[in-house]
Design goal:
This protein has 212 residues and is of the alpha/beta class. Helices cover 43% and strands 15% of the residues. It contains five helices and six strands; from the N terminus they run E-H-E-H-E-H-E-H-E-H-E. It starts with 8 loop residues before the first strand and ends in a 7-residue tail after the last strand. Bound molecules: NADP nicotinamide-adenine-dinucleotide phosphate.
């Protein structure tokens, strides 16, 4: 959607193949300027290099969308330390690494916009959700503090909290009653289109009629 709006967009993911494939599809579907590079956002050094790559490819950096996320759903007694760490690293620490890079650039150019893709799990705990809930509750706190740190520098910050979305996430369930990925993208587009004087801090979205 951002490409359709005329933005230049750089994406990342954990493998070259997936990123290149996505860049090709995006460019073909929209005719827009899509770029991409491999970057594991749990590694601050890889994040630093990815932002250096965006310095070389994009005209400027106006918008950061933090979307990468994983879900490991297990009772605390069964949760492995690695699963806990990976969930927190992917869903929370990565957002700090990316925002730190973005803030340096936003400062230089006088502002910018951050959209964090959180979850209703950032507000509602559920059984089996300890790591996921902790990461998304943490993301909510981080996002609010980020906004307070940088709002006077013309940085706007929003968080989107979806319920079930039909993607490959977790068990990869797909059903007609679920939110579709493009519905989440539409919310991001709406947030970015707000007049500069106004910042929408948080959007909750859920399936109108949840199935089973
Ligand atoms: N689906 C839902 O029901 C739902 C509900 C609420 C919130 N959310 C949130 O929505 C966001 C997107 O999830 P999704 O549903 O689209 O899941 P998804 O289909 O599994 O996609 C996850 C994305 O994150 C990327 N990613 C994961 N770990 C990464 C890492 N270490 N470095 C770089 N990229 C990484 C993946 O790319 P590669 O695999 O190519 O690395 C993939 O593009 C997540 O933050 C999730 O928590 C999802």
């Amino acid at each position: 959607m951002l490409l359709e709006e005329g933005a230049e967009v750089a994406i990342c993911g954990r493998t070259d193949e997936a990123v290149q494939q996505a860049v090709e599809v995006l460019a073909q579907q929209t005719g827009g300027k899509a770029f991409g590079a491999r970057c594991d956002v749990t590694d601050p050094e890889e994040v630093r290099k990815f932002f250096a790559y965006t310095d070389d490819t994009l005209s400027r950096l106006d918008i950061l969308v933090n979307n990468a996320g994983i879900g490991v759903f297990r009772a605390v007694a069964e949760m492995e330390s690695d699963e806990w760490r990976k969930t927190l690293d992917t869903n929370l620490s990565s957002v700090f690494y990316c925002c730190r890079e973005a803030m340096a650039r936003f400062r230089r150019q006088g502002g910018g916009f951050v959209v964090n893709i959180s979850s209703l799990a950032g507000r509602n705990a559920f059984a089996g959700g300890s790591a996921y809930n902790a990461s998304k509750f943490g993301l909510e706190g981080f996002t609010e503090a980020l906004m307070l740190d940088h709002r006077m520098e013309n940085v706007r910050v929003s968080t989107v909290m979806p319920g079930s979305v039909a993607t490959g996430f977790g068990r990869g369930r797909q059903a007609d009653w679920m939110i579709q990925p493009e519905d989440v993208a539409e919310v991001v587009r709406m947030l970015l289109a707000m007049p500069e004087r106004t910042m929408v801090s948080r959007v909750e979205m859920r399936p109108s009629k949840p199935g089973k």
